Task: structure prediction
Amino acid sequence: MTGDRIMRRFAGHSHHRRCHETTPVIELDGVPVTVSVDGDGTLWTCDLIGGECAKRPLELDAARPEDDWYYENGLWDEDDPDEEERPKFEADAWEIVSKLTVAHLDDRPVVITGGGRHDLHHRGHNDTVGGAVRVWDLRTGRKIGKTLPSWHHSLGVCSLTTVTSDQGLIALSSSEDGRLRAWNLTRGGESVADIHGSGNGAMGAGLVDGRPVAVTGGEDDSLQAWDLLSGEQIGENLTGIEPVVRAIAITEVNGRAVVVAGGDGKALQRWDLTTQELLGSPMTGHTSSIHTLETATVAGRAIALTDSPDGTTRLWDLASGQHIGDPLTGHDLQMVTETAGTPVAVTESPEDGIRVWDLTLATR
Result:
């Protein structure tokens, strides 16, 4: 995946004071933009074609939870304190936007955030309370709907993603203590699933035969696949991977639903979700753990991109299990998406900022 195999498409702006680890991309009024939130709560969108950036304040004052459940969960010693005696919620962008993703909700571009372990912290209350999930209007920075309670996320949100299904847009969050939560955002945040998975909070999701499915993993040497609509585990655990699992994806390879995962074992593993069998040998090449994993289908070819602290981004053919080209060095993989119908990889580096690479060129 070197410069002669993959072409730079755009150059954008980078915000290094952002609260979150990755910079997602979404189409806004027909233009691909990066989305980030700075530590002071400023929401940025940067045009990947023209390079222009726009900012607006994130409505942090609206981030506080709704009282009807926030004050009913026994987060302090007093019983039902008077309103003026209740601990005050303190909005902290660094905690509220610990994880960030983007999506279209009823054709409206939105930002979805997952809070860190001190997101719901009170003034004068020192216990770790955990994180919540919130939805924001990308154009205005205003909060949409209610704060989604995540009392089981006592250690904060570790993984956050969405799945678009015939049920609507489903947001999923997973936490270090092993809880997987899912909400239907199209139906106002209606709860879809509350599942206990593996500790460490790794999670990936997708559609399998039209049904939303999530796969969880982490500190164990196995993964679990879940049917979100029923809340039931699909088959037995997927075994054969070394802990700690840090990145998981669900994709289709030659007509089969396939789970792909990697982590501290440094190798990618693949499972057929239907038969639950491992596919081929481990895909090796990284010399350190795999922290980021994205998948795409390019000209009918299922591929994966991985990123590691070893300083490389690698491109893989998921059918053969082989490398495609040479590793890309000096860039951090942010996400894989489409711009103008073209599959692209978004990377960032301190020297070059945001770059978008045409994956059709990389897989030739």
